[in-house]
Amino acid sequence: MDRGQVGNSPPPGGGAGPDPRRWKALALLCAAYFMVIVDSQIVILALPEIESDLGFSAGGVQWVLSAYLLSFGGLLLFGGRTADLLGGRRMFMVGTVLFLVSSVVCGLAWTSEVLVVTRIIQGIAAAIMAPTAMAVLMTTFGEGSERNRALGIWTGIGAFGATAALLIGGPITEGLGWEWIFFINIPIALVVLVLGPRLLRETPISEGKRSFDPAGAITITAAIALLIYAVVEAPEVGWGDGQTIGLIVAAAVLVVVFALIEQRAASPLVPLRIFRSPTMVGGNLMMLLVAMATYGGALITSLYAQQVLAYTAVFFGLSTAIYSAMSIVGSNVSGPVATRFGFKPVAVAGTVLLGIGTLLLAQVSADGDYFGDLFWGLLVFGSGIGTTVVASSIAALSGVRANESGLASGINNSVFQIGAALGIAVCSSVAMAYTSGPTERVALTEGFQAAFFATAAMAGIALVVALVLLLIRQSKPGQSVETGQVGAEQPTAVASRD
Known about the structure:
The protein has helices spanning 22-41, 47-54, 63-74, 76-86, 88-108, 112-140, 145-175, 180-183, 185-199, 214-237, 242-264, 278-308, 313-319, 321-341, 343-361, 370-397, 405-433, 440-470. By secondary structure, the chain is mainly α. The chain is globular and about 65 Å long.
């Protein structure tokens, strides 16, 4: 297949060759992804007002955020698999409808219980939308230069969405009320619903008997939800607490049960053969570590800026624009570079940048300032994030069968969410454990420095994974990663010089 060719099926309306609407389709998918990412972050700045208006307890209000993250992270695999069994475009539209309705109800919520339950439903909708959108992207852009470029844009939108949530969450809450952090989803969702059927290509659907493997879906969803809950609560209750240990053990047991179920299932939720691809496994492992470093580092940066430098939430969002901008630059540059030189050198370069950025941030001081303590670290850190996420995604999705693209996307998204939760929990725990000093500012800074060193260690392990990937032989175009045999149903491998 030529590098410029896209898709594994003809574009809508018949014919062959690139779909002329593919870039408009990407813009629509990115708009939906932006909405999902913003909604996972924007409530942070509105929690005090929500707590007051709906009568949450001080500890209970965190569930406005946690309920979304748990259902989103826990159901990503199931959401991805629905794309393979029922069609990515179809399920993407279903998820968008559910997201629209739940956003409206969230904004109209009259009790704390209604808001938490509706946030769970909103997380379920996001778990359907994120992997199915990426499955449609993979179908629209075949492996090679255009898909790499599209993944770069997709990653940049994710970084921009996370920062935009911090920038607009405060002003919206203060000017319009917390309800509007949910109502702003309405026009975006409506545009997606109107244009989606016209612009988006349906993904290949698995042939044969369609089964959702309910036993597998329940066990892996429960395992992921328990793991995320354990690490989210760990900084508060302690890593050695019986609750944390018990939840992690329970999650591990459920993973083993899930593997046994999948070995015997006629139509498994996750065919275990998909893990025979070393690049797929390596890419997802690197994504886990990158997400840990990204979210852990971002959290500690936020705490340092607001608790030590006394930045307001709005000013902090503006001050981190360089971090977001460099992440977008890194993600957009790395796609074409990966096409020319392969994703492996890009992965190595990105993890090096990530490590250098966190080491620079580890030099923060109690009497610091923006340019002396944050600017240069954020500049390098942001570049590393955009680069490594694109390289990890390319590796994790390389050589995946067209009718398993939703599953591969679900795995990749699940790994990222788990990594984010782990990174936040680990860095929070390290910061609290190493907090000491003659004054509060000095004590906080000591803890934040230790947490930045922890993120540097995460980046270092990711670098080791990237170096191991360099030693793995990339399959040739048209060749299966799993068997090494040429097969018509396999997409082409990423064009590279590895």
